[in-house]
Amino acid sequence: MRSSVSKFLLVVLVVAMTSVVALAKKERKTVSLPADMKINGTVVKKGTYDVVFDRDGGQLSVLKNGKVVATTTARVEARDRKARTTEVVSLNGNDGRSLLRIAFGGSKENIVIAQSGVQSAGTQ
User: Fold this and answer.
1) What is the tens place of the pLDDT at every residue in 47-104?
2) CA of 124: how far to CAs of 76, 117, 121, in Å?
3) What radius of gyration do the chain's Cα atoms show?
4) Which of 4, 59, 70, 112 could share a disulfide with 39, CB 3.0–4.6 Å?
């Protein structure tokens, strides 16, 4: 009897762990960068990449041929309306172009990249 209960609990544990992994909120899209740009200090060359955003961890990863080229922290911000196509927004600064945000086509959210050294307006 004890063996049956142990097996049952093991099955429940495995199912619960699998459910948590399945519920992880990751979005993966193919994105074309129109120019070389910095992402968290790493220069990513102009071209087509897979972008994976992990909502739970707040991490954006840029991959080329399955290999991670750059990662950074990011957050979600609401948009006024859905993006018609995938939008890549960057800022041209003294040290080059930096990725600011991405909106996947059909999404009502922007994925906003954390910028080091940039202060937002407001109280400190």
Assistant:
1) 999 999 999 999 999 999 999 999 999 999 999 999 999 999 999 988 889 999 999 9
2) 22, 15, 9
3) 19
4) 70
pTM of this prediction? 0.71
**Structural tokens at position 106:** 């059909």
Tokens 């954006």 locate to: 60
Q: What is the DSSP letter of 75?
A: E
User: How far is the C-alpha of 68 from the C-alpha of 84, rounded, in Å?
Assistant: 27
Q: Is the CB of residue 64 less than 8 Å from the CB of residue 47? A: yes
Beta bridge partners of 31: 49
Contact 51, 61 (CB under 8 A): yes
Query: Tokens in use for 71?
Result: 């990662």
Q: What is the pLDDT of residue 122?
A: 36
CA–CA dist 89, 91 (Å, integer): 7
Domain boundaries, the chain: 22-113
Both tokens of residue 50?
A: 């897979």
